[in-house]
Amino acid sequence: MIPYPCYPAQYSSVIAVSGSDENNNFVDGWNYGSFVELNAPGRTNSTTGLWTTALNNGYASASGTSFSAPQVSALIALIKSINNSLSLSQVKSILENSADKVGLYSYSNGRNNYFGYGRINAYKALKYTIENFGGSFNQDITIPASDTLNIQPGKSLSFNSDCKLIVNGTLNAIGNSTNGITFNRSGGSGTWGGIQFNSGSTGSLDYCTITNASTGIYCFNSSPTIKHSTLDYNGTGIGCNQYSSPILVGNNFRYNSSHGISCNTYSSPNLTDNGYPGSNVIRNNLTG
User: Fold this and answer.
1) How far is residue 19's CA from residue 31's CA, in Å, rounded to a whole number?
2) What's the CA gap between 165 and 159, in Å, rounded?
3) C-alpha triplet 277, 278, 280: angle, nearest 5°
4) How far is CA 14 from CA 7, 36, 118, in A?
5) What burial class does residue 156 get, using C-beta atoms within 10 Å of its C-beta: 0-12 exposed, 13-18 middle, 19+ buried?
6) Which residue, among 205, 193, 127, 125, has the nearest Cα to 158 in the 3D structure?
7) Which of 213, 214, 219 has its CA nearest to residue 197?
8) 3-state SS string over 56-82?
9) What is the pTM of this model?
10) Which residues contact 279 (CB under 8 A, 6 or more apart)?
């Protein structure tokens, strides 16, 4: 066990990684120290290790921090794949803030000498990236029924053609009058699939702009709150189906090619000011 950094971990721009086993325990005898930034799996058990490719088109088992570090590199690649504009310091912040505080050692100021800021968690890291930095997506993004996505003011999310943001849990996208939140397509043509609130889901959108979607917001047996938002240049601004009653306050529905608001199967949106300035404006949509 070496309690001081060796190259390349000794470079200030390199993330030093320690290893843990399948039970989230630090592996005794492996490197530790104040230089450790993050932890990743490096051994599944004491005999089999991790499977890796080997010479002559075979596989071999091994263990060590040499197998922990590549997992951090792979997670960084995933993060950059949804937001390539992130700086190295921003990526480092994402990894630190999304890591799991596991292991038998206490954390002081967010870290210890064995796990650094914690064991990497790919799901939490990507979620943290979306919430705090936005991104661009080439596949559907789904919020599980047990989870909440909180998008921060001023962020922008863009989606490839027909891709959706699917809400099975909770979506909160709360902007403000000076820092709104934007949902748009990737590229200059085509439409994306919009935000889809499924049965049992909930959420609040405030000061959001949703544009160039086939349906900006689709509610299926769900009733999110939409306030001070703009739904322009979609096929349909908001579509309601199967007993949906979204609360709509002070929104703009304009230049949608089919409908500003479309309702089916016992759905009835609640258009109200609720004490907020400005009413819902529905205009210049093809059929209302």
Assistant:
1) 8
2) 9
3) 140
4) 9, 10, 17
5) middle
6) 193
7) 219
8) CCEEEEECCHHHHHHHHHHHHHHHHHH
9) 0.89
10) 250, 271, 273
Q: How far from the centroid of its chain's Cα atoms is residue 136's Cα?
A: 10
Beta bridge partners of residue 283, listed in sequence order: 254
Single-letter residue type at 121:
N
Here the tokens at position 101 are: 């505080």
Query: What is the SS3 string spanning the chain?
Result: CCCCCCCCCCCCCCCCEEEECCCCCECCCCCCCCCCCEEEECCCCCCCCEEEEECCCEEEEECCHHHHHHHHHHHHHHHHHHCCCCCHHHHHHHHHHHCECCCCCCCECCEECCCECCECCHHHHHHHHHHHHCEEECCCEEECCCCEEEECCCCEEEECCCCEEEECCEEEEECCCCCCEEEEECCCCCCECEEEECCCCEEEEECEEEECECEEEEEECCCCEEECCEEECCCEEEEEECCCCCEEECCEEECCCCEEEEECCCCCCEECCCCCCCCCEEECCCCC
pLDDT tens for each residue of the chain, 288 residues long: 555 556 566 566 789 999 998 888 898 888 888 989 999 998 877 566 677 777 888 887 777 788 888 999 999 999 999 999 999 999 999 999 999 999 999 999 999 999 999 999 999 999 999 999 999 999 999 999 999 999 999 999 999 999 999 999 999 999 999 999 999 999 888 899 999 999 999 999 999 999 999 999 999 999 999 999 999 999 999 999 999 999 999 899 989 998 889 988 888 888 765 444 444 556 555 544
